[in-house]
Write a structure and sequence with these properties.
alpha/beta; Aspartate Aminotransferase, domain 1; 7-stranded mixed sheet; 2 domains
Length: 393
């Protein structure tokens, strides 16, 4: 047996282990100091009431002969796909149910989708980036080229006809920067992809944080996207499903490349390699779309957004350049006094005991930047903001 040598080319990620090590060292030397973690990328509020109720009742059904469910459809139950379709229609996007594939979260499908593409395709990835896009392609041995996201383009790179790419990753609202593409900008990417017969893999895992009706929550709000884009979305941040696991992928039937239909290929891939998300979890996800569910998840999203506003306001007060935080749980700031990302990490830990994520961990262009998140508790976020205010002042 010869192992896949491409695994030797995956960069070891020391980011979160280095953070944990530094935090542990600091707290063992300073046991009386309270550390506040604003680096967290996971939700902290529990599942909302209607979801828990639906999960419980679906579990009961599973214990009764007449309502027991065995294998379900690999691509998801119609009851959930119907609700996801309705969610899209609210943003004027019409999808057929067989264009929606229920998944166990965006991350798996972002990796699995690569089964559909030839190994010789060139992949375009923005820098800084969510590392999954890079690592999954490196594992497969594909060539990756980077496009610069930086302060000059507000961390929203646009296509360059001189750079030819077959597979393009876009994430909006973005992790780690919190930047959001507007419709005109996304239209440029859609035009580029249709012109070059490329595919856009659009990660909309944070679309639920968008409140401005003019900003696109789905790439299919852009004319022409159904011939060049696959979209990945998730209940993780929308409804606190990070530990419950459910998401969906949209593969339009109009995606045809070299006479091959990507929707048919994905259906074939899923029915071969995936046996679906559990009935119980899909019932929980369905409850998210009930009027009560929408009200309850909005309360949680508003809570995170208020946290983000508190952080953003204190940075603005002290003239610290930052983006995100408005339509995103992430705030991306420029380290003051031209400090490097890790330098600023140490500085915050030492002086105010706040932990964030060094931007350099997301790519070369992240050097000199820092990511804070709004997923902490209100109490801790307020305390962190007060410390920052005093200290930066
Ligand atoms: N895409 C982005 C940009 C993310 O930040 C995350 C998780 O943090 C995911 C996808 C993964 O989402 P899921 O929990 O649905 O796998």
């Amino acid at each position: 047996m010869k192992p896949n040598k491409n695994y030797q080319n995956i960069a070891q990620s020391y980011l979160f282990s280095t953070i944990a090590k530094k935090v542990n060292e600091f707290s063992s030397k300073n046991p009386d100091k309270k550390i506040i973690k604003l680096g967290i990328g996971d939700v902290t509020l529990p599942l909302c009431e209607v979801v828990v109720k639906a999960l419980k009742s679906a579990s009961e059904e599973m214990g009764v002969k007449e309502t027991f469910h065995g294998y379900g459809p690999e691509q998801g139950y119609e009851f959930l796909k119907e609700k996801i379709g309705q969610y899209y229609r609210e943003h004027n996007v019409n999808l057929d149910n067989d264009e929606i594939f229920v998944s166990d979260g965006a991350k798996s499908d972002l990796g699995n989708i690569l089964d559909l593409f030839d190994i010789n395709n060139t992949v375009l990835v923005p820098d800084p980036v969510y590392p999954v896009y890079v690592d999954t392609n490196t594992m497969a041995g594909r060539k990756i080229i980077y496009i610069n996201a930086n302060a000059d383009n507000n961390f929203l790179p646009l296509p360059d006809e001189n750079i030819k790419a077959d597979i393009i990753y876009l994430c909006s609202p973005n992790n780690p920067t919190g930047a959001v593409y507007n419709k005109e900008q996304l239209k440029q990417w859609v035009n580029y992809a249709n012109h070059n017969q490329s595919i856009i893999l659009f990660d909309s895992a944070y679309e639920c944080f968008i409140t401005d009706e003019n900003l696109p929550r789905s790439i299919y709000e852009i004319d022409g996207a159904k011939t060049c884009a696959i979209e990945f979305c998730s209940f993780s941040k929308m409804a606190g499903f990070t530990g419950t696991r459910c998401g969906w992928t949209v593969v339009p039937k109009t995606l045809e490349f070299d006479t091959m239909n990507l929707n048919k290929m994905w259906l074939r891939r899923q029915t071969t390699k995936f046996n679906g998300v559990s009935y119980i979890i899909q019932k929980g996800a369905e409850a998210v779309f009930s009027p009560e569910g929408q009200k309850q998840i909005k309360e949680n999203l508003d809570y995170y957004k208020e946290n983000a506003k508190l952080i953003s306001d204190v940075l603005t007060k002290h003239n610290i350049w930052h983006i995100g935080g408005k339509h995103s749980p992430y705030i991306w700031l420029k380290c003051p006094n031209n400090m490097k990302s890790w330098e600023f990490f140490d500085y915050l830990l030492e002086n105010v005991q706040i932990v964030g994520t060094p931007g350099s961990g997301f790519g070369n262009n992240g050097e000199g930047y820092f990511r804070l998140t709004s997923f902490g508790s209100r109490e801790n976020t307020k305390e962190a903001v007060e410390r920052l205010d005093k200290f930066l002042g």
